[in-house]
Design a protein that fits this description.
The longest helix has 23 residues. The protein is about 40% helix and about 15% strand. Helix 3 crosses helix 4. It is globular and about 35 Å long. Helix 1 links the parallel strand 1 and strand 2. The protein is built from five helices and seven strands. The strands form two sheets. A five-stranded parallel sheet has the order 2-1-3-4-7. The protein has a two-stranded antiparallel ribbon with strand order 5-6. With about 160 residues, the chain is an alpha/beta fold.
Length: about 160
Amino acid sequence: MARKAFFSFHYQPDCTRASQVRNIGALEGNSPVSDNDWEKVTKAGDTAIAKWIEDQMFGKSCVVVLIGRDTAGRKWINHEIVKGWERGKGIVGVHIHNLKDLSGNQSLKGTNPFDGFTIAGVSMSSIVKTYDPPFWDSKDVYAHIAKNLEAWSDEAVTIRGKY
């Protein structure tokens, strides 16, 4: 049975790339949200968004942060990282900039979203691992993520268990 994971990503530019990773099937993820459903949640305000995130994280053992060009520093990505850690979930980052979107475009590599956090005085980026597939071709990037995602999430849970 696949590990259950919450996928965190910057919706607007990276939803296609995130869908590719989720569709790998290595992890059982939170349900994809349609544009219309996400619009309803966001229009209901911050409390509704926080509740939606909490509900989606429930029962998951790992938070997989899919790192695109503008992921780091986003309000709700930061919220998901903090809540995931507070809830004892493993956290792992995966760079997805070289996966193609629906228009066939790749993106620029984003910065590490864990750089802005500390755990017991230590930078979270020195504890939480991030993976950047070493390929330019989108198909190779996809294959690399597919091959490793389950092991990366298992490792994240193991790391989290040490803190």
